[in-house]
Amino acid sequence: MQLPAQDQFGKSVHVQRDPRVDKLVDLQIQVNREAVKGKTIIEQGYRIVVISTNKRDQAMEVKSRLMKTYPDQKTYLFYQSPHFRVQFGNFRTYKDAEKMKAELEVEYGKSVFIAPSKVEVRMDQQETEKN
Fold first, then answer.
1. Quick check: 87 and 48 in contact, CB under 8 A?
2. Distance between CA atoms of residues 119 and 44, nearest Å
3. Residue ranges of the alpha helices (H) in the chain?
4. Domain 40-130: which topology?
5. Mean pLDDT for each consecutive 10-residue tract of the chain (131 residues)?
6. Cis ω on the peptide bond leading into residue 116 (within 30° of 0)?
7. What is the pTM of this model?
8. How far apart are CA 131 and CA 123, in angstroms?
9. Computed from CA positions of residues 113, 119, 124, 130, in that sequence, does the dihedral angle turn out positive or negative?
């Protein structure tokens, strides 16, 4: 493949590239994707705060119910004196978090809210969402 280019004096320069280079680049891209498949990265996203209470037992109960109802989502329990806070999910977009928030409001009421947070994203999920 020839790529025309002009130098500073207006003369054309033709560069010929071996087509095997493109095949090597594609192969390296595939190898890199396989190497990171299944790994988790941290990026900016959203979590849903389901409850914030000063009663540890209540927070643990909510966390347990969430884990049973949604086994495919992660549930987090944080303590910042004097409150226990249960956060739910790892959502990359606000829109995704809003959908789940609407579902959770049915059981947990209008006190459920979306909070910006660092979230865990599996690399294979990220590739699937891009395609």
1. yes
2. 6
3. 20-36, 56-69, 94-108, 123-130
4. Alpha-Beta Plaits (3.30.70)
5. 58 82 89 77 93 94 94 93 94 94 92 93 60 46
6. no
7. 0.65
8. 13
9. positive
